[in-house]
Amino acid sequence: MLVWLFEQWLAVDVALFGFITFRTIMAAMTAMLVSLLIGPFFIRHMTERQYGQPIRALGPDSHQAKAGTPTMGGAMILIALVVATLLWSDLANRYVWTVLFVTVAFGGIGFLDDYRKLRYRDSRGLAAGWKYLLQSLAALAVGLFLYYSADVPANTQLFVPFFKDVAIPLGLGFIVLTYFVIVGSSNAVNLTDGLDGLAIMPAVFVAVGLGIFAYATGNTIFSNYLGIPYVPGVGELAIFCAALAGAGLGFLWFNTYPAQVFMGDVGALSVGAALGLIAVAVRQELVFVLMAGIFVIETLSVILQVVSYKLTGKRIFRMAPIHHHFELKGWPEPKVIVRFWIIAVMLVLASLATLKVR
Q: What's the pTM value of the predicted model, to 2 decimals?
């Protein structure tokens, strides 16, 4: 938007605006600043209206003290993210509008869920069936759009890490893959959001990693050198990734232990869906499984717990998701959080290493 304003309204050609790297840095700084500025007002507003988080009765006993902490802090992330993206990205780029649509749509679903929790003082929120239906409609709409707007073969091929020339045409299967990546990523981040700062920091790490992939994938020189697919226009998503990282860090200022505000579904669902879509856009769905490994592990722990209990009547973990298991083993909450962050960093670095191992 700023590029257009300077060129059309002020008739000024600012050369720096032509560089994705510059706009990426500015987007991160803008999003962080916006998040930091609106945070105190948002928290005060939610506190005054007593919009506090209801705590599940089945959760760890130590969490009951958190009841009443303002929630829906993900709205801060959304506002900062959207503002920074609109200001610094190329608004003629279809990927920018697609990722904004997914982010806002899943944020809206999360808002409905959070609102019902607050309105009825019930931690269950929006019925699972309705939540899944709305997520499915949004994800399928994006999958269809990306499939029918594909302009190069790479847009709908599956690329396998470690191999330069393995590209599997997916056909209509691309829509199915897109659907599962977006919905799966959204719910995986939501499951991870159970401790102060536990979900947002790995999301920031993943956003940075995907931003590097986006920049390289959208650059003919780097994509050819690294042996990854070249996808025209996808480099603009590096700006969105930077904005997400900046907004997440600004939110973490208030969400760090002990949290002044919780992210809520409005943040977790939208952030997860955005990360999933970016992984699809840069054609790195398989690498994304490794990069977002913390979210994958949390989700698998829930699946394994449910399957084990239904088949054998026994639980694998003391409580799922797995971060609660370590809490019940006696780990202090900050220790669980920081150690999960360390693992998240290692997984993102391992994912970035696949750029050269081909």
A: 0.92
